[in-house]
Amino acid sequence: MPDHPTEDRLATLLSAEVYWTARAMQEQGSRFYRALGAALEAADLGNRRRLYATWPDEFWDFYRRGLRLRDELGEG
Question: Are 28 and 46 in contact, with CB atoms under 8 Å apart?
Fold first, then answer.
């Protein structure tokens, strides 16, 4: 998946299933990112938007990791 401008990334993140991004964060991230993954999983839409806007590059990285994880597990 090619890199996208921040606005496109935000739209993609907001429309994507949270599960795989949160799972990648909780399985592959540092303690901080594991906590963010748990927060993402629990967040409503407004709070997800805040999380994504605050750390756009980090969430984009874990979103892409989540897609790879999903594909590796044959769920995609």
Answer: no
Dist CA 53 CA 73 (whole Å): 29
Angle subtended at Cα 11 by Cα 5 and Cα 74, rounded to the nearest 5 degrees: 100
Name residues of the chain where pLDDT drops below 70: 1-5
| Residue 8 near residue 24 (C-beta atoms within 8 A) | no
Return phi, psi of residue 44, to 5°.
-80, 180
Please give the Cα distance from 64 to 70 (Å, whole number). Answer: 10
Other beta carbons less than 10 A from residue 41's beta carbon: 15
